[in-house]
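Quick one, T. Sequence first:
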Amino acid sequence: EQAVVERLAEEILSERHLSIEYDRRRQELQQALGLFRKGMVSLAGESKAWLYSGGLFLKTPTADAQQMLKDDLAKVNAEIVKCHDRIRNKTIELEQTERGANSARIKGLELQAVSRDEMGELVNHPTRRQ
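Structure tokens:
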């Protein structure tokens, strides 16, 4: 049992480190997209922007570069969600291993966050308008 607990704890830690790396990447992408929104990317009215990708500098149309960054951001966000789900599942498994399947903590770990769409529905629900 101790070996299982240690393996799960190690997997949780490695997933957390991966999540931190994805979050750093997300912040970089958001900063780059912010520069596009502020119009600070092109020089002297150029219609192309330089991107560094995979060890290469690429000069691409600004709209294409911005779309590539948005696509990358969507992929990174999806990976972060998957990583958090794996962390939650492994944490539940660790809790079950340590304290048993009927642990009260497990119920709290199984909660899912409210999505932006669900929150919008709750805020704009007809019963809330008075």
